[in-house]
């Protein structure tokens, strides 16, 4: 499967996933730097989870394209070793 890395749809999907991950990473870093003084409400405790709708067709499509790209890269790398 050839994937055009200049495809705007692929770029949009990757950007969406990257933005979600970056938000998760920042929230995690802030949580680690903030001293725990008392038990936090469950709403705040769950702030480190990724806020992404896994049923969103765009998210599913983005994940599938990224996985396919990685699998292709991995296969080409393995073939190159042989």
TrEMBL record:
Residues 29-49 have a biased composition (Basic and acidic residues). SUPFAM superfamilies: P-loop containing nucleoside triphosphate hydrolases. It comes from the Eukaryota. GO terms for molecular function: calmodulin binding. This is Uncharacterized protein. Pfam families: IQ (PF00612). Transmembrane segments: none annotated. Residues 29-52 are annotated as: Disordered. PANTHER family: IGLOO, ISOFORM A, NEUROMODULIN.
């Amino acid at each position: 499967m050839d994937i055009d890395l200049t495809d705007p749809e692929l770029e949009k999907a990757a950007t969406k996933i990257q933005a979600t991950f970056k938000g998760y990473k920042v929230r995690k870093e802030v949580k680690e730097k903030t001293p725990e003084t008392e038990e936090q409400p469950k709403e705040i405790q769950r702030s480190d989870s990724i806020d992404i709708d896994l049923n969103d067709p765009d998210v599913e499509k983005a994940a599938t394209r990224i996985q396919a790209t990685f699998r292709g890269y991995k296969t080409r790398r393995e073939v190159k070793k042989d």
